[in-house]
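User: I'm preparing a small set of examples for a lab meeting where we compare how different chains pack in three dimensions. I only have the primary sequence for this one, and I'd like the structure in C-alpha cell form so I can line it up with the others. Please keep the answer compact; I'll paste it straight into my notes.
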Amino acid sequence: MPTLWALSDLHLSTSGSKPMDVFGDHWDHHDVQMARNWDATVGPDDVVLTPGDFSWAMKAAEAASDFAWLGQRPDCKALVKGNHDYWSPSSHAKMSLLLPPRTFALKKTACHIPSPAGGLGIFGVRGGDFAPLTRYGDKRTHEEVQTWLSREEEELKASIAALDALDAAAHRPRGLRICLFHYPPIAPGRTSSRFTPLIEAAGATWCIYGHLHGKEVSAAKVEGTYNGVTYRCTSCDQVNFTPLRLAEF
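Assistant: Understood. Below is the C-alpha cell output for the 249-residue chain.
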C-alpha cells in the first residue's frame, strides 16, 4: 500500500544563494541530507506533504532549480504556501507551469490521490500568527492579526469545500483526509483554535504543519491528538531532515 510522509520547510536554495548553515552546522548541505533520506525511505507510489517554505527564491524563475530537485523525487507531493515563499505566483495557471508532475500546490483548492484502499484527500491553508510577535519587532496590531486570521479561515473553508466537491463529483465517500498548515494551527499552550472545529468537521485524521525551527520552540510546538485529529510539526530540522512516516492509505 502507498505510504504517507511529511517533511516541511525545506528552505531549498540549490543555487547556493542562501545556504542554511548560517543557522547551525546541522544545516550544512541540508538539501543533500534530505535528498538522501527521502530517496532511501519514500517509494514512487507514496505521498510527501511539505506545507510551506519550500524555497528561498524571490521570483518564480529563481526557484527552477529547487523545483528540479523536487521533481527528482518520484513520489506525489502536496504543498501549501509558507511565509518565506516569495516566489509563489499569484494565479493557479502560473503555479501549474512551475510544478513537477504529480505535485499539488493548494490555495483555496484541494486534491485527491487515489489508492487501492480508497485514496487520500488533502486540504489546507497557510495560517498565521495568533498574536503580534512584538519581541521580534512585529508592529501589527491585534486587530490586524485577527483580520489576517479571518482571511485564512475563509481560505480554509474554501479548501475544504473544494475537497467535498471533488468527492461529490466522483460519487466517493470520505476517505482518509489530511489538513496542511504552514503556521501552527493552534496557539502555544492551547488545544484548540478558531481553525480546529473546521479541521475536525472536515474529517481530518492528521494536521501537519511547519514554520518552527531550532531548539527553543517547545512552547509553540503544539503536538498531540485532540478531538480525533493528530497535530504534528514536521519542519525538516525538527525531524532530522528525514520524511516522517504517518500512515498507509
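A couple of notes for your slides: The two ends are 7 Å apart (CA to CA). Helices lie at 30-41, 64-71, 92-98, 142-169, 196-201.

User: Perfect, thanks.
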